Every structure is written in C-alpha cells, then in structure tokens.
Amino acid sequence: MRAFPVDLPSGQRYWTVIDDDLCVVPVADQWLRFLRFGRSRAELTTKSHANGAALYFRWCLATGRNWTEAARDLGLFMVWLKYTPSRPVNGSTAVVFGPGAKPVRGERRINAILTAVRGLLSHAVSVGAAPGSVLGQI
Question: What domain of life (predicted)?
Fold first, then answer.
C-alpha cells in the first residue's frame, strides 16, 4: 500500500492509495477525491491523508485485521506507527521496542496520520462502506 499521485486531464492533481498490485483502493480513492474536489482541499492535503491511509491499510494487512473493524485497535496502530519504519531496515520491518529503541515517527506525525485515518473511517461509514459502530471506536 502506498500513496500515488493522479493527474487528471483537466490538469488538476490529487493523491490516492494503491495496493501492492497497483490497484486503487476504492474507499480511499472516493474519500480523497471528495476532499480534493468536494471540499476544495489542497493537493498536499490529499497527499498527506493518502500517506496516512496507506499506512493504516498496510498495518491492517500486516496484522491480519479487516480495515473496517480495526478501529477498535487504534492504540496498537499508534505503537506500530511509532516504532515501525515505512521502509525495510536491513530487510526487516519488524517492530523494535524496549529500552533504547528509537521512535521512527514523532507525536505530531502520528497525530496527523490518526487524523487522516479517522477521516477515512468517518467517510467510509457515511457512504456505507463500513458499519456505523466504527464511529464509536474512533
């Protein structure tokens, strides 16, 4: 999962999320297009939110969670964000924790990612792509 720029024939651009097979993740794409064109958000806003959503989907895949049900485990996602690098280090993306472990993301970045994830999940509930119970978990 990763963020990917989309150049439209009109010359406008937004960011979306694609999976490892280079297929667009529909719920994320719908949400990011809505933000960019329905809410007139800046291109860089969709880039930031696409990166946050991609990390959430990547965490869900890595931990065997369904993205529509994983909201209840956002605390675990926060730990994963803090200690798991975006790119493999020496061939491993394993979480390294314990005395002396250095966080790979700071509090501000983690909060920005959580804002994106909450926005994605709220939108998913509003369009029927996720159950309403998700709102109580975020």
Answer: Bacteria
